[in-house]
Amino acid sequence: MNTISRRAAGAALAAALAVPAALAATPSASAAPFCGLTWGSGARATSPALLWSGRVTAARTGQHTCFDRVVFDLDPGRGTLGYRVRYVSAVTGPGSGLPIPVTGGARIQITVDAPSTLRRSSTSFPGWRTFRQLTNTGSFEGYTDYGLGVRARLPMRAFVLADAGGGRRLVVDVAHAW
């Protein structure tokens, strides 16, 4: 009798474990990524040794169907453009490390491994799906920092494009949803 009880219990346990596994394997519409994007929200960065001698000349933004985009334009220069793009609890100023207020439910600190002569500035994005505020926090010792306030911690990506004239563009996209 004891053997039958163990076998019955083992079979019941196996059946109970199989049901959640079968449900987890069943595709659902809610499991599909937004617009097919599979970026994630982890930090994006190149090697900290990468520096670009050209200067950051502009930051421009745009809205797309699935994401909001910010592009940092850089003059022609030498080296390799490096960057760090990461979610932070507070955006900090270059050199001082003091917190810089940035509007939004989540904040992204963007460090461009290149100098800039642009003045500190801030732009708000009323009515945008993801972006809330972009703040140029300044440049210090060859690095330029921006704080990007977004609606929530959402998937993002970052990449560098080379211009025909020798300049570079750092592109940061933040999705509208998961």
Word description of this protein:
The protein is built from 1 helix and 12 strands, in the order H-E-E-E-E-E-E-E-E-E-E-E-E. It is mostly beta strands. The strands form 3 sheets. A 6-stranded antiparallel sheet has the order 1-4-7-10-9-8, with no helix packed on it. Strand 9 (131-140) and strand 10 (143-150) form a beta hairpin. The radius of gyration is 23 Å and the shape is globular. The model is unreliable at 1-28 (pLDDT under 50).
Radius of gyration: 23 Å
SSE arrangement, N to C: HEEEEEEEEEEEE
Q: In one word, what is the shape?
A: globular
What number is the mean pLDDT? 88
Largest sheet, strands/sense/barrel = 6 strands, antiparallel
**What portion of the residues fall into strands of 2 or more residues?**
35-45%
Count of alpha/pi helices: 1
Q: Structural class given helices, strands, pairing?
A: mainly beta
Question: What is the spatial order of strands in the main beta sheet?
Answer: 1-4-7-10-9-8
* Fraction of helical residues: 10-25%
